[in-house]
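WARN retry 2 of 3 for item q-0093 after timeout on previous attempt; input resubmitted unchanged.
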Amino acid sequence: MAHPFNPKEILNPVKKLAILLIILSSILSSRSGYCEDARIADVAVSRNHALSITFSVKDAFTKDIDEAIKTGLPTTFNFIVEINRLRSAWFNETVGGTRLRHTVKYDSLKEEYEISIDEMGERPIRTKDINEMKALMSVVTSADIKPVKPLVHGEEYEFRVKAELHTVELPFLLNYLLFFVKLWDFETSWYAYSFTP
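OK item q-0093 returned
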């Protein structure tokens, strides 16, 4: 015997889906500001043998990011550096720049972090100390920046620096199941440092 149609049976899954969406949106909104305070600091420029820059990222690590790293997911800080020639009557001219990467991967068997740093070459650094890992990940030391054309003496230039954190790109299906991983991503605002050669 056929059962009569009951509209409440359809509404129950719809209600469940609505509740799930409300919970997910509250998680998204509560986590989206986790790295709002991450910022570029301690900028220093050297013009000895080459034009180089040193800087750090403050307040980049949160409990969630620490936990993400501990799962073994490779996590990358991208540092974008630009050199612009400042022009008052026209758009600024980009005369150089680079993109640097610091990547960390945690080995749970050895209980150590492996950090690859672009400006230090291909050989990774290994440490068991989480504080040392964070310092290596968040500080760029004496990165040489080669302008595409010579800097003009007496002209005003600026370095613009920004940092981004990206967790590893996961395979499509895994990315779908673990979509919340993207909540750990962040980027800082641009930091400008003016100088005259």
